[in-house]
Amino acid sequence: MKKYIDDFTVVENRRLNDEYVILTLQLDRELPEILPGQFAEVRVDNAPNTFLRRPISIHDVNLKKRQIKLLVQEIGEGTRTMGSLQKGDKLNLVYPLGNSFSDPDTKEVLLVGGGCGVAPLLYLGRKLKENGITPKFLLGARDRDGLISLDEYEKVGEVNVTTEDGSLGTKGFVIHHPLMRTGNPGYDHIFTCGPEPMMKVVAKYAEKHGIKCEVSLENRMACGIGACLCCVTDTKDGHVCTCTDGPVFDSTYLKW
Amino acid sequence: MKKYIDDFTVVENRRLNDEYVILTLQLDRELPEILPGQFAEVRVDNAPNTFLRRPISIHDVNLKKRQIKLLVQEIGEGTRTMGSLQKGDKLNLVYPLGNSFSDPDTKEVLLVGGGCGVAPLLYLGRKLKENGITPKFLLGARDRDGLISLDEYEKVGEVNVTTEDGSLGTKGFVIHHPLMRTGNPGYDHIFTCGPEPMMKVVAKYAEKHGIKCEVSLENRMACGIGACLCCVTDTKDGHVCTCTDGPVFDSTYLKW
Amino acid sequence: MVDLTVDLKNGLKLKNPVMTASGTFGYGEEYEDFFDISRLGGIIVKGTTGSHREGNPYPRMAETPHGMLNAVGLQNKGVDYFAREIYPRIKDYNTNLLVNVSGSTVEEYEDVARKINELENIPGIELNISCPNVKEGGMAFGTSCPSAVSVINAVRKVYDNHIMVKLSPNVTNVAEIASAVEGEGADSVSLINTLLGMAIDAESRRPLLSTITGGLSGPAVKPVALRMVWQVSQAVKIPVVGLGGIMTATDAIEFMLAGASAVQIGTANFIDPLVSVKVIKGIEDYCERHSVNSVTELTGGMITD
Amino acid sequence: MVDLTVDLKNGLKLKNPVMTASGTFGYGEEYEDFFDISRLGGIIVKGTTGSHREGNPYPRMAETPHGMLNAVGLQNKGVDYFAREIYPRIKDYNTNLLVNVSGSTVEEYEDVARKINELENIPGIELNISCPNVKEGGMAFGTSCPSAVSVINAVRKVYDNHIMVKLSPNVTNVAEIASAVEGEGADSVSLINTLLGMAIDAESRRPLLSTITGGLSGPAVKPVALRMVWQVSQAVKIPVVGLGGIMTATDAIEFMLAGASAVQIGTANFIDPLVSVKVIKGIEDYCERHSVNSVTELTGGMITD
Ligand SMILES: Cc1cc2nc3c(=O)[nH]c(=O)nc-3n(C[C@H](O)[C@H](O)[C@H](O)COP(=O)(O)OP(=O)(O)OC[C@H]3O[C@@H](n4cnc5c(N)ncnc54)[C@H](O)[C@@H]3O)c2cc1C
Ligand SMILES: Cc1cc2nc3c(=O)[nH]c(=O)nc-3n(C[C@H](O)[C@H](O)[C@H](O)COP(=O)(O)OP(=O)(O)OC[C@H]3O[C@@H](n4cnc5c(N)ncnc54)[C@H](O)[C@@H]3O)c2cc1C
Ligand SMILES: Cc1cc2nc3c(=O)[nH]c(=O)nc-3n(C[C@H](O)[C@H](O)[C@H](O)COP(=O)(O)O)c2cc1C
Ligand SMILES: Cc1cc2nc3c(=O)[nH]c(=O)nc-3n(C[C@H](O)[C@H](O)[C@H](O)COP(=O)(O)O)c2cc1C
Ligand code: FES
Ligand code: FES
């Protein structure tokens, strides 16, 4: 897929809570095709200690409005600077990068997200729905404040939640949710994105039950386009780049 | 004099033209005493390539309002970032630094400025006037746009101008102004600040006519407080620091 | 019209002085979507070794103030794979393709060079005797004169085209090493490779790289690189290629004024994939503005009276 | 309550591990308006030589990405002036005052050390064998083992108190030099001094420093400094004092985890005159948060399994 470098204009910065914002970015021409699971390398200007671009998933795409959304969790100077952007500010993106979640062979799919890993699942869910598949979501967070813009996900499919403190949904981690209990689980393809420990238990569960499982990995990236070889992950084929061979991998391909 | 580190609040950013702005900064407590000719070391945040503080003269002081003014010429990333500050922004200053213009023994003084070197002359003029001395100003610039906020100077004393292109006042450099012709010049103390070549001809003229001349030097500064010895200038006593022994020097003391 | 061409001799003529640095521009293909890479003066492709190398474990990268550390460790599929699979895909780029050659032993350097010698559209190699990220060989060859000499001497015997030797900045006297490799028949030297550095995460108390230390690149190292280019260009007669932290045309011009005949751009490609063409344009503009007819006039043009 | 004290041995006990670096904190007096400087673990005063030195011509400073170059060149009024005029003013600070001792010859180092030996309230000297900004001596002493050894050997004979030797980063193998000075009786080593660098103004084509090259300091050099502190702390048994680009408590902690017993803060003082007290406070907070009872537990605490 062809990659682009473009200046987007911030048309909205919606603050969800202390930690999360959703940026809506508009391009002044047609958007290229963007697949669910892909990401952008974002240049953060005016942040003195942010030298490299920051990889951020495409949270949502609206071709008609020529808009994309980024869900940003503020954890350091780069993401905090993104979080402070205002309407009218520019943001330079190299995009769309990486492979994508696959087209499932089944109609029964579960999308499991945790933390800011929920970001790519909204666009994935929307795309699945366009193709006649109504996904189930299972979203986990520390507490109810960590579960963000659930209404958007609800428009796409059934939403199930877990919180570590039990303040919403099932108490515990996603793996403790009834959907992840043995016995007919009602889905045979899992897409998951979130903290690595979470994805590992989800993948283990899936493998045990013969369910196909695609995971979206994070990694420290410099280029995002396969040029620097900084972002490798260990697979059955040895070191491959998370930014080009991934970020989405079949869980059985990884040396986890 | 005791030095301070304080966060000031920008209460006004008045843009004079493409190149110059006047920032009005307010302190949330009483200002300390500040002498004419002193400067501040300004910390420039959010400018990725601006590592060190920037020395900027105190352009004006209003003790009652707890305000100081800085006249900033945008020539690089640091000064441009200062020029883009908005009402409500904070600016951290180490101040007041350096010596100051002396108290003249005479009532007949001429204040000669060029470029952003006019900055410290406004506060100096105001202080002189408070002490019963009405100064004459001689201000030079490339063209009329380079001559800024003349009205402020006019409130303090007689203003004479030169422009290189003749678009205002006498055509040429300050040294070509009638005030700088030989014969009874009508003043016996010059204070000057501006580009070094300008100050050199002014100083030479003054020395030739037995007029006392104080010049305010610029220099590349790291600390601004005499700790790093980066900002030396060559004098009859060898290398001395521009930031503590200066920025104001008697022209005859310098090895020019 | 400014003449941007630079002749580095022994078969290496550049249409302009801007090349991309090894390990930061893949095989060029990665950047094809962004601009016509034949506009470049040259591309130094990834570090290539005698056989397949997996490189170092993850994590391999850490950001630092105005720079980055990497510990890739020469991951590549080996020279045979390069010749068979990659070379055919890229050989017709209308620019100079140089292969960055690495090894753990003198024999490995020799072996790789011999194989590259057979590839028609490769006008030269860059001998990497300065990689800080491998346990054996690499930088060890570039930090003492005798070992540097042994590599160049062996490779010179089997390789006919342009040999550019990439020097390590992790030495007491870089000019001495440059003179030594010049004496063995190197056609040019390029510098700097990365400075050996390290980063720690204070919270977890762990190093940020799997290998603990790694190579520092980016604008942070530019003052050191510029100094070394200046020192080396006074010590040798062969052309010097300058790199280390170039982000803008002004940076590139500084390297040329310090003595470089050409430059390479590394880390900056990650921040702006278009940087190399912007630098070419910027050099041209500078030359026009300063009435410089040929870019070669900039080389060593620093005024120090 | 966290125990912040550090004993560097041979008479140098610090109330906390934070000192200010030579040449960046004047004689301490310059910072008195900002905070009570007796809160510091120590102050290393300006480089002091046998006789008055004018230092290098102007310009002496250039800003670089996340760093600065300086070419002060040891401007100072000489050791006699120090002992007569400055020492009486500062001797009663309730902190450790160390004099940074420099020279062009072994005899000059010896001479200065002998005179400092007579000043009661100076618990130690920092032997600067690494100044890159002087034509003779300076860094030349610190870049080879034999010359480093000759300085330490001579000074050790005339100086009884703590000798901290300040190492140059402009070497191939810093651990080797550290071991050599340890062998001659150095009580501790501090590193790094500045990296030799250079900057040019492309428009005027002139170097930005009167001396062409100068010393690079600030966050840009931190990864290199951290790596060297780690290498040296594994090679010697005497305490290592880490510096180079420390701007925050986290930076300081990283140096300690890499093996430093104490740290020095240099360039950061220019940007925030209060930085050293903030670093002390930040180290204390970190220790509390991590249930560290004594700051000495941080030294070499990097986990590398
Ligand atoms: C393919 C991909 C997609 C991503 N999508 C999103 C997204 O949609 N929304 C979002 O908020 N974040 C996303 N991230 C994570 C995001 O890139 C990092 O949070 C960001 O780079 C941190 O930058 P910073 O300057 O804010 O923090 P820094 O100050 O750089 O880092 C803060 C802390 O986070 C750690 N860290 C930094 N970068 C990474 C990383 N890439 N992986 C793991 N730890 C890291 C650092 O070591 C440090 O401890 C994604 C990452 C990848 C690789
Ligand atoms: C005592 C003193 C008082 C000053 N008062 C004022 C004032 O009232 N208003 C004002 O606008 N400016 C003043 N200056 C100058 C001001 O400090 C510089 O313009 C500023 O530091 C430039 O920063 P920058 O990041 O914008 O430009 P940079 O990108 O740092 O530099 C742009 C260009 O200016 C040159 N330059 C940078 N700093 C200096 C310097 N200190 N002296 C000479 N050349 C320099 C650089 O070499 C470069 O060519 C004063 C300087 C001193 C020493
Ligand atoms: C991710 C990465 C990989 C690199 N790989 C190589 C390599 O394989 N061979 C080599 O000679 N240099 C390699 N280098 C060094 C660069 O080519 C260059 O010498 C260095 O980064 C300094 O230039 P820069 O500051 O412009 O990046 C690599 C650098 C980076 C950042
Ligand atoms: C302006 C300046 C002057 C310096 N003078 C000396 C000196 O006289 N003696 C010395 O040993 N080091 C000197 N140094 C080096 C510092 O002490 C320190 O080693 C170096 O700056 C690295 O630390 P930093 O990055 O925290 O500044 C000087 C550094 C600067 C910036
Ligand atoms: S980030 Fe450069 S190869 Fe993946
Ligand atoms: S700027 Fe540091 S001594 Fe003047």
Task: Write a brief structural summary.
The complex is a heterotetramer, with two copies of chain A (256 residues) and two copies of chain C (305 residues). With 256 residues, chain A is of the alpha/beta class.
Count of helix runs of chain C: 8
The CATH architecture of chain C would be Alpha-Beta Barrel
Distance between the termini of chain C: 30 Å
Approximate helicity band of chain C: 25-40%
Specify the number of helices of chain A. Answer: 4
Structural class of chain A: alpha/beta
Judged by helices, strands and strand pairing, the structural class of chain C is alpha/beta
Describe what you observe in this structure.
The complex is a heterotetramer, with two copies of chain A (256 residues) and two copies of chain C (305 residues). Chain A has helices spanning 77-83, 119-130, 150-154, 196-208, and strands at residues 4-15, 20-26, 39-43, 54-57, 60-62, 67-73, 90-97, 109-114, 136-141, 158-163, 170-171, 189-193, 212-216, 232-235, 238-241, 248-250. Chain A is α/β, with parallel strands linked by helices and 256 residues long. In chain A, helix 3 (150-154) links the parallel strand 9 and strand 10. The longest helix of chain A has 13 residues, at 196-208. The mean pLDDT of chain A is 94. Chain C has one domain (6-55, 73-197, 218-298): TIM Barrel, CATH 3.20.20. Chain C is of the alpha/beta class and 305 residues long. Chain C starts with 5 loop residues before the first strand and ends in a 16-residue tail after the last helix. Chain C has eight helices and 16 strands. Chain C is globular. In chain C, strand 12 (200-201) and strand 13 form a beta hairpin. The mean pLDDT of chain C is 95. Chain C has helices at residues 79-90, 106-117, 145-158, 174-183, 222-235, 249-257, 268-271, 275-289; strands at 6-7, 13-14, 18-20, 42-48, 61-64, 67-70, 96-101, 124-128, 162-166, 188-191, 195-198, 200-201, 206-207, 213-217, 240-242, 262-265. Chains in contact: A-B, A-C, B-D, C-D. The structure holds flavin-adenine dinucleotide (2 copies), flavin mononucleotide (2 copies) and FE2/S2 (inorganic) cluster (FES) (2 copies). One FE2/S2 (inorganic) cluster is lined by residues 221-224, 226-231, 241, 243 of chain A.
